[in-house]
Amino acid sequence: MARLVLLLVAVAVAPSFGLDNGLGRRPQMGWNSWNKFHCNISSQLIRKTADLLVSTGLSKVGYTYVNLDDCWATSRDKLGRIHEDPKAFPEGMGHLGEYIHNQGLKFGIYSDAGDLTCAGRPGSLEHENSDAQSYADWKVDYLKYDNCHAGDIDVRERYPIMRDALNRTGRKIFFSMCEWGKEAPWLWAGPVGNSWRTTGDIDPSWERTMYCLDLNEPLYPYAGPGKWNDPDMLEVGNGLTNVEGQSHFSLWALMKAPLLIGCDISKMSAATKATLMNEEVIAVNQDPLGVQGHRTSRANPNGAELWQGPLADGSIIAILFNRNDDLPANITVSFAFQGTAIDMEIRDLWLHKDLGQFSEFSPIVPPHGVRMLKVKPAGGKKTPSGAELLNATTLTSYYFIFPSIKTKVQTVV
Ligand code: GLA
Hints:
Structural class: alpha/beta
Mean pLDDT: 91
CATH topology of the largest domain: TIM Barrel
Oligomer: single chain
Low-confidence stretches: 1-17, 405-413
Bound molecules: alpha-D-galactopyranose
Strand content: 25-35%
Number of domains: 2
CATH architecture of the largest domain: Alpha-Beta Barrel
Distance between the termini: 55 Å
Largest sheet: 8 strands, parallel
């Protein structure tokens, strides 16, 4: 009871800024083993992935965390210390971390705030100090902390215990919370974690990607430097089409989601690589303003959508998104300030091209596709700016294009 009262007091007085460990000023970028490899992980895979992050140039554009997910641990010794699977990781975690660091990369690890991890490996509940110290000894830089097998102890009690244990080691360790948005972490976890999952697990289907997107979208007011909403890791390269992969990446970038690659880098196609390495889109994600973009209008749940977000330089990003499964859409956005049409300069972040000045822009967007635009007032004019600029850009109409009759037949405003 005393613990609960203390906790309530702590929550009540806690300021609403991000966890003060100096980490996560920009959304985290890197690679994680789970989406593609699940429990089939080994030192060999992790070393190879670290090499590839460097040789492909992925690390240069920002993907620096190499994160092991579940299944690296198998047992505790008599002193309660956690140990890696000796077959899969014969060199030990310390040496693996050293290898990763020698590549100029950062080392991430996984545990769980319950007795067991989701895959049934030892969890950290009641071993928080010992585990945090092991991580620090191994020079770990990142902890993803899951929430399986946690009994009925409140998550708001369990996660701060690991945060404090990590802090006490004196090593700066990014704290990535993974309780799937069950207890609305965006409302209380700013001072606890650097990021928190907002959804159940993603999978490489379009439907599941949209499920994660839609749950994460309304949470935009709660994200910011040091405290990011996490709609789960990327599935680019795991089975989505190239168009879908570009949309997934664009929307995650705009939402300031962590960009954690989830595919087998050794087998990534040229198209997957081009998507993951689009530096203009990455720059949106890593923009120092750190404001999560969101959907500003949609015509119906399976139609055209306009997503927007501001950047530090005063411009905005607008994503014209066609949610329809089969039909291309002619989506029109218009730019008007205080009732008067205004010209905007538009740059396309996938074509890597300045498109010119427009008071209305009306591209055809393929099914499940996006156009991602950087928009600013033409001629360097200062007004409208900031929030006004977001209001100035509106979805005015869209038409689905039915190929059989080769004509635009449906209008929705
Ligand atoms: C949970 C998490 C996943 C992954 C698995 C590992 O389901 O949400 O991201 O870490 O556990 O078992």
